[in-house]
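User: I'm preparing a small set of examples for a lab meeting where we compare how different chains pack in three dimensions. I only have the primary sequence for this one, and I'd like the structure in token form so I can line it up with the others. Please keep the answer compact; I'll paste it straight into my notes.
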Amino acid sequence: MDDHIVALSLAWTGLCVAAPSLYLVTRRNWRRLVGMLIVVSPALLALLIFVLYVTALSNGLRAVTG
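Assistant: Understood. Below is the structure token output for the 66-residue chain.
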């Protein structure tokens, strides 16, 4: 997996979290914002771990196969 693809996927995920967060902040809907962040945080952490795992696996295979 190329590094720019990883960066693009993380940037897109950040945008998908930032847009609803900004909407909820402007509407002063703090309860839903906190609830959304509690639900989204573990999912984003799992996504980041998965992306780093796939990157490490790809780099390891590339090193082994030449």
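A couple of notes for your slides: The chain has a mean pLDDT of 81. The two ends are 15 Å apart (CA to CA).

User: Perfect, thanks.
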